[in-house]
């Protein structure tokens, strides 16, 4: 097998393992699936960080009541909503998990705020976080610190154009 082909096979295998590892980063508590808890890296001196995950409720309605982690003084649950042209963030007492629904904690929507960080969050680090649900109970998850993933590029219409430059 030529070296270039071997490199492509190995690169494909590595990508598959990374994808499987990311997919395997999930937890189950009763009828609630907790998928891919992550936090963004922070800079030295930054006292607040963001936490994200997907919560899939396969049973009766429940609520995320509180979140704690030793990496921060407190973990707050926030909603984000547009009010005209202004994005408003608001701390909430709980996040509703309707029966049979998926709730995404992501930038620009529901999310967690890690307030009073005790040290910067660095890419590749992990830390434990405790989630407490009203009915399902408590679970400790491992949060991966990961940089934001780029959004998939939207296909743009293909067109040809020419530019003329005069100097």
Topology:
Elements (H helix, E strand, L loop, with lengths): L2 H21 L2 E4 L2 E8 L8 E10 L4 E7 L3 E12 L2 E7 L2 E3 L4 E4 L5 E7 L8 E8 L3 E9 L22
Parallel strand pairs: 2-11
Antiparallel strand pairs: 1-2, 2-3, 3-8, 3-9, 4-7, 4-10, 5-6, 5-9, 10-11
In short:
By secondary structure, the protein is mainly beta.
Structural notes for this entry:
The protein has 167 residues and is mainly beta. The protein has one helix spanning 3-23; strands at 26-29, 32-39, 48-57, 62-68, 72-83, 86-92, 95-97, 102-105, 111-117, 126-133, 137-145. Strands 1, 2, 3, 4, 5, 6, 7, 8, 9, 10 and 11 form an 11-stranded mixed β-sheet that branches. The longest helix is centred in the N-terminal third of the chain and has 21 residues, at 3-23. It is globular and about 45 Å long. The N and C termini lie far apart (51 Å). The model is unreliable at 13-23 and 155-167 (pLDDT under 50).
Number of strands: 11
Helix content: 10-25%
- Structural class by SSE content: mainly beta
Radius of gyration, rounded?
Answer: 20 Å
Give the overall pLDDT as a whole number: 84
Strand content: over 45%
Largest sheet: 11 strands, mixed
What count of helical segments does DSSP give?
1
Poorly predicted sequence stretches spanning 5 or more consecutive residues? 13-23, 155-167
The span between the termini is 51 Å
How would you spell out the order of helices and strands?
A: HEEEEEEEEEEE
**Silhouette:** globular
């Amino acid at each position: 097998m030529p070296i270039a082909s071997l490199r492509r096979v190995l690169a494909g295998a590595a990508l598959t393992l990374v994808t499987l590892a990311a997919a395997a980063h999930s937890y189950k508590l009763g009828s609630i699936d907790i998928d891919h808890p992550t936090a963004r890296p922070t800079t030295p001196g930054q006292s607040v960080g963001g936490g994200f995950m997907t919560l899939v409720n396969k049973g009766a309605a429940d609520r995320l009541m509180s979140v704690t982690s030793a990496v921060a003084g407190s973990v707050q649950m926030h909603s984000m909503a547009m009010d005209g042209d202004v994005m408003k963030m608001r701390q909430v007492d709980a996040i509703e998990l309707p029966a049979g629904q998926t709730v995404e904690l992501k930038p620009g929507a529901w999310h967690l705020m890690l307030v009073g960080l005790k040290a910067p969050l660095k890419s590749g680090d992990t830390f434990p976080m405790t989630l407490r649900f009203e009915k399902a109970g408590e679970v400790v998850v491992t949060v991966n610190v990961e940089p934001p993933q780029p959004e998939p590029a939207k296909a743009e219409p293909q067109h040809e154009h020419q530019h003329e430059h005069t100097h």
